[in-house]
Amino acid sequence: MNTSIRISRLAAAGLALGMSGLASGQVFPNQAHAAYNFIPLGNHVCTYHQVYAAAQFGSAPIEIRSLGFAPNTANNGQTVIYTQLKISMGYTDRSPGGLSSNLPDNPRGALTEVFNQPGFSRLLNSSGTEDFSMIVPFSRPFCYDPNQGNLLIEIYVENSSVDLSTSRCAGIPDASRAFNSTRFGNSADNVAQRMLFEIGQCSGGGPALRISGSCPGRVTVSWANATPSRPMGILFSSNTGSFVIPGGVCAGTQTGLSSSGLQVVFTGNTGPNGSGQVSANAGTPACRKYLQMVVADGSPCSTSNVVQIP
Length: 310
What we know:
Mean pLDDT: 87
Strand content: over 45%
Shape: elongated
Structural class: mainly beta
Radius of gyration: 22 Å
């Protein structure tokens, strides 16, 4: 019997992985208010990039769970409604002051969507420039590792019922912005929005793989905490090791598997919540061999823990 696990179908996604650890709020960049600005949250169609120097965040990974903005007090009592508000996060090789107004040039790999809501609305009430009362809670927290590079935030705004301006600072040397706006054109400069980060401990630090069942027999492979809706593959190997994928979209990604008997046994999608499972019949030659998931969500690609087939 072939050593590969014949996986027949993608099962329904499981429950989303819960957040762990206490959360706290901190304003980044940690600079004084300089002015209120209509970019990015005013009435226009705008895609906005903001880069943060990694050094501001220390060395340990942090989980970013929401962003808060300090609205102009002139808008108090009004309700702002956006046709669409979307936020994504990821990494960039560009530094503050170095973003391109050609926005596709800025990210390193794919960005992770953390919030996307048509008709997003908030009642505006602010006591001043330090009142970050317009909170956007993420549907999927983002685990940011400063050791992997500078943080890039992308905000997409599609029209608003209130021409909202929010607090910004001078930016450099900690952060800067670039934007494509139907109102203000395409540009990059050295200022930045002041944002309140709700931060906590990362709930996983990457895709988590587990396997249940018995071999030979029926086994179920499940995953969680992966980047949602991204192509992925499950690799099989006879031994653990440090094999580096030589080509394709995940070229240069180091795995925890050996090249001995290495093969792809399943390809699919991580699912809308970054979690899911597949089941298969495993033959005797597959028992006590190893599996690992690779997700095509950046460069290098994300990899899960290595699991042993029981």
